[in-house]
Design brief:
seven-stranded mixed sheet; globular
Length: 124
């Protein structure tokens, strides 16, 4: 029923940029908080950026702040994460998550629907 599919990952040099996309089907995206989370081997998934379903509330991790931008197009059921500039420590699997309700939070264990993840590798 609900499908969440990320795209836009790949190999990029330090200082480069990427835009990740998250396409959602099976629900009305406008009813959900959205978030981007990342996970590196041997570590827990962590929140990168989240965007509320209303009132424009946003969250950025300290690492993402001033470099990443989260946005959404509810009419098209799309979520984006613009990353610029990228650093080697940004290398990770990136996941798009959705959470229902109006309460705003950016903790991965509280997000209901997930994509399969995309790999971002930042290396020269």
């Amino acid at each position: 029923q609900v499908h969440v599919v990320e795209s836009g990952g790949g190999l990029v040099q330090p200082g480069g940029r990427l835009r990740l996309s998250c396409a959602v089907t099976g629900l009305n995206l406008g009813d959900y908080n959205v978030g981007w989370f990342r996970q590196v081997p041997g570590r827990e998934r962590e929140g990168v950026s989240c965007l509320a379903n209303s009132h424009g509330s946003t969250y950025y991790s300290s690492s993402a702040k001033d470099r990443f931008t989260i946005s959404r197009d509810d009419a098209k059921n799309l979520v984006f994460l613009e990353m610029n500039p990228l650093l080697p420590e940004d290398t990770a699997d990136y996941y798009c998550g959705l959470r229902g309700g109006s309460a705003f939070i950016c903790l991965p264990h509280l997000y209901r629907f997930w994509g399969q993840g995309v790999l971002v590798t930042v290396s020269s």
